[in-house]
UniProtKB/TrEMBL annotation:
Keywords in alphabetical order: Cell membrane, Membrane, Transmembrane, Transmembrane helix
The protein's name in its UniProt record: Concentrative nucleoside transporter, CNT family
A molecular-function term among this protein's GO annotations: nucleoside transmembrane transporter activity
Source species: Chitinophaga arvensicola
Main localisation: membrane
Compartment(s) of residence: Cell membrane
Residue ranges of the TM segments: 6-22, 29-47, 94-120, 177-197, 203-225, 271-296, 360-381, 402-420
Amino acid sequence: MERFQGIIGIVFILGIAFLFSNNRSKINYRLVFSGIGLQVLIGFLVFKVPPITWFFQRVGDAMGKLEAFARKGAAFVYGGIGVSQPDGSGLKDYAAGGFVFAFNVTATIILVCVLVAVLYHYGIMQRVVAVIARAMNYVMRVSGAEALSNVASAFVGQVEAQVMIRPYLSSMTKSEILASMSGSLACIAGGILVVYVNMGLQAGLHIAPFLITASLMAAPGALVISKIVFPETEESVTMGRVKMEVKSNYTNVIDAISHGAGDGFKIAMNVIAMLIGFIAFIALVDWILIHIGHIFNPNFNLSLDWIFGKLFMPMAWAMGVPQGDVQSVATLLGQKLTINEFVAFKSLTDKTVPVLSSKGIAIVTIAIAGFANFSSVGMQIGGIGELAPDRRADLAKLGLKALLCGTLASYMSASIAGMLI
């Protein structure tokens, strides 16, 4: 029965999107069904075709090794600092082992940003994105700009993806802008994805194939949902063509490494500051809620996790989560949407919110692997607004719709995966 619950999830998700549609008569059902078909195909290939499953497992192993390479740089900076060892053998020099979230995460993000900058400098990143975008453009008949933006979001950050379509931002239709924003919120940047892979490995969870699958499925999924919520009624200047500038902004490879390291450091510091702020604020809110709960019952420990666990239970069940994991998965879905995905992944990997079954772990990993949360909407409006100031009003109006679309796209990927696993 659990395998077929995913069908209920897909119908439920599409129903919500249809309910919020601003023009139901203009929905392009060819685009909708081709996009869902593409998601199913990606999931089937990754989970059911052994050579491709093996390939993505090896990619996951390679991502795990990036943390070891990043540690080489971090060990030079943090060497001499004593940290607890995983085997319980006490304190040792950080360079000799141990996992410190701030040290390891910053190092990994910086290394991945350096690699992306180098690939961008040599034009490799742009060509890979363009090839995949052309395929999506051919299958789904979406415009070149929104195809490029959605595919790029699987590799780079949510604002960086819009840089690749900067020449078109001012002339894009509102439907295209929503599709691009939704894709960036549904996907997850490569640097952050690698961090989550390593957080999973530290906890003994091999979630790399699920994370990679989530990122690949998110692009067509976001287009499907956004085109139901806001169907295209205008003429796109990039319909039927995918064109990208391959020119590098860097002087040479040393310049690319320098800029990549600098950008990675900014992202890493933002992640650390965000986690400290949010987790501290959650602790404050939980303290208040516990005292409110005790007014009605001395044994009732009311908390945000309890609230999320109740609110998101129907969605967790509909996605095909095993019954024993439904409340935990629902809690993680709530954390991801209202706080951020980093907090949700930290709760999953340090088992603060325990998910017991392998299927439950797979579904929730895919469902929370995206940037769709309230703070990211603000970052998008500000970041894309800087690239195209004349569209800032449209961005602000479409922000919450993009959050809805990005969230539903991730849930749909998780529902499809739940039926295949």
